[in-house]
Amino acid sequence: MDRFAAVERALRSAAPHLLLDAVTAALREQYGVERAELRLADYGLTTLQVVEDVPYTTESVSIQGSPQGRAFGAQEPRVEPKAVEGATTVHLPVTVRGDRMGVLTVIVPDERFDPAHLPEMQRVCEALGHEILVAERDTDLYLLARRAARLTLAAEMQWQLLPGRSVSRPEFSLGAHLEPAYAIFGDNFDWTVSAHHLTLTVTNGMGEGMEAALLTNLVVNALRNARRAGLDLPGQASLADQAVYAQYRGALHASVLLLRFDLATGEVEAVDAGSPRMWRLRGRVVESVGFDAQLPLGMFEETAYVAERLRLEPGDRILVGSDGVYNGVSAAGELYGERALARSLSAHRLLPASQVPQAVLRDLGDYRGSLPLDDDALVVCLDWFGR
Predict the structure, then answer these.
(1) Rounded CA gap, 203 and 258, in Å?
(2) How do residues 254-285 score in pLDDT, each as one tens digit?
(3) Would the keyword Hydrolase be found if you checked this record's keyword annotation (predicted)?
(4) Which of 110, 142, 157, 359 is most buried, judged by most C-beta within 10 A?
(5) What is the pLDDT of residue 41?
(6) DSSP assignment of 132-189
(7) Predicted TM-score of the model (pTM)
(8) How far, in Å, CA of 163 to CA of 31, rounded?
């Protein structure tokens, strides 16, 4: 049995809350690792929190500027030869199918360290990430390590709905982020990928707090139910519209942008039912992509929806923002979506899609200055590579 297979077998046989112990013991036996530390990115993507039995015992490290954060951001192993006397410290990103989860730091005595082992150790981190996702069904250990502060109940409900924060396939790379991470209300995103299509939905629920969270939960699950029943995009919107109207009789509604990407051709089918908006960066030109505005879900009984189409070209970048983004106001009274958002998208064109949402939201914070964020802010970025 080769080294990687031995570590993978140890991970699969470990109890859900003992994954770090299992991977440390296996890495010690196979690669001479002295000790290991696992940190997961918090919901706000600002810190890396240690996975430990008693949460918050060990101080977190910032993603910006720390060695662990640089490995997390670059998605590459980072080697520190002299961080520990007589040993080499290696920070390895833990990522599953493009979803950046955290960093595994290992310390190897200098006489046992071999740079040729790094690719295998990186594969171990990918296997660890897969096992963490499975283990989260049975233990709160890893979910607790993802929070730097207590979540509101509304935020807890919203985060449990999300499919992840990023995903990649040969045809595309996608990243998304929500702010404020620990007190989000009605904004949400969802995606699913099949052999032939990527379906992406961005939701902006009406109201605040629990009211908004309950509405968004209804919308997201109604859309999933319709999609899994085989309905087309307009049919998905119609079924969710009926579900919301049946519950609230028009008193509450939700804005949704539904997008379905053909992975083979780049053709995009879209249903615009409310406020989320889309921009496209093609070459160095940023332009707003306008759709025919249709009624938000649940506003009236049995609304009929119509799909529109456009085509992406390899190299295109798509950005979708909620009204909390493009309606952000500067001290001078100008909306962020008028000019500043396009400048931000252009300025960050060299960043990978997984890092763009946070960069755009940082720019939004600078743009607003001292003005507080008075609404959810959601950004989704997709890089299209095509086949």
Answers:
(1) 9
(2) 999 999 999 999 999 999 999 899 999 999 99
(3) yes
(4) 142
(5) 97
(6) HHHHTTT-SHHHHTT-SSPPPHHHHHHHHH---SEEEETTEEEEEEEESTTS--SEEE
(7) 0.93
(8) 34
Token couple for 222: 């109604």
Query: Taking a C-beta distance cutoff of 8 angstroms, is the pair 153, 213 a contact?
Result: yes
When pLDDT is averaged across residues 50-70 and rounded to a whole number, the result is 94
Q: Cβ(326)–Cβ(340) under 8 Å?
A: no
What distance in Å separates the CA atoms of residue 6 and residue 17, rounded to the nearest whole number?
A: 19
Q: What DSSP assignment string belongs to 59-125?
A: PPEETTTSHHHHHHHHTS-EEEEEEETTEEEEEEEEEETTEEEEEEEEEEETTT--GGGHHHHHHHH
Q: How far is Cα 229 from Cα 54, in angstroms, rounded to an integer? A: 43
> Which residue, chain included where needed, has tokens 């770090």?
20
Residue 322 contacts by C-beta under 8 Å, 6 or more apart in sequence?
187, 202, 204, 275, 276, 375, 376, 377, 378, 379
The one-character DSSP state at 48 is E
